[in-house]
UniProtKB/TrEMBL annotation:
One of its GO terms (cellular component) is membrane. Pfam families: DoxX_2 (PF13564). This is DoxX family protein. The chain crosses the membrane at residues 6-31, 52-79, 91-111. InterPro entries: DoxX.
Length: 113
């Protein structure tokens, strides 16, 4: 296993896990924009759970590669959906934020290929 892949994967998992935790604890900097984008409050726990599962899947992928690939696919779809949601809300100044979570996930995947 490549050391760079391991480091980037662990960092990506921690970064996405932090994002999930931020949703679960209703951090102001996360939930206010979600409300602004029109994301229903009842979806917030599910969004946090999806990110948490993706984070754990990235870590599990270090030992079972197919799980990492599936987690990567899920997270790419998740954060692509986040970009679309932000764009549809015309909150263009916020577009970089989901991309900041997407980039290390894709980077980890590319290092693992």
């Amino acid at each position: 296993m490549n050391l760079a892949y391991t480091i980037v994967t662990v960092l990506a998992a921690l970064w996405v896990g932090f994002s999930a935790l931020s949703v679960f604890i209703h951090a102001k900097w996360v939930v206010e924009p979600l409300a602004e984008y029109g994301v229903a409050r009842r979806w917030w726990p599910w969004l946090g759970a999806a990110k948490a599962a993706g984070s754990l899947g990235l870590l599990a992928g270090l030992f079972v590669p197919v799980i990492g690939v599936l987690a990567t696919i899920g997270l790419v779809l998740y954060f692509t959906g986040a970009v679309v949601t932000v764009a549809r809300a015309r909150s263009y100044a916020h577009l970089p934020f989901p991309l900041l979570y997407l980039a290390p996930v894709v980077g980890a995947f590319l290092l693992g290929v």
